[in-house]
Amino acid sequence: xxxxxxxxxxxxxxxxxxxxxxxxxxxxxxxxxxxxxxxxxxxxxxxxxxxxxxxxxxxxxxxxxxxxxxxxxxxxxxxxxxxxxxxxxxxxxxxxxxxxxxxxxxxxxxxxxxxxxxxxx
Length: 121
What we know:
Helix content is about 35%, strand content about 15%. The protein has helices at about 5, 20-25, 35-40, 55-60, 75-90, 100-105, and strands spanning about 15, 30-35, 50, 70, 95. The two termini are about 25 Å apart.
């Protein structure tokens, strides 16, 4: 759909599609991956930061308060929970709808822990 889901149609929603997420990232946003270590190692977006959901509450202070956070997991369920948590803490967090599965389906790059082409685990 693009540009914050056509802005007016997404008021109040914290979900972004891949096109919107890419736009936010181009404009200084940060991709926050909340999947487990084995999922991250198999494949993640090249500039993402890894904060597993189970450790996120103790990591909030390390996240930048002055940037939009695009939160991602495999399918969008864990990242939706993480997005709610971050928003309650006052951070500008958005959930990547469809997660890394949607990211890959849109042809976006994935790298594994060895720097090679990754997969969604």
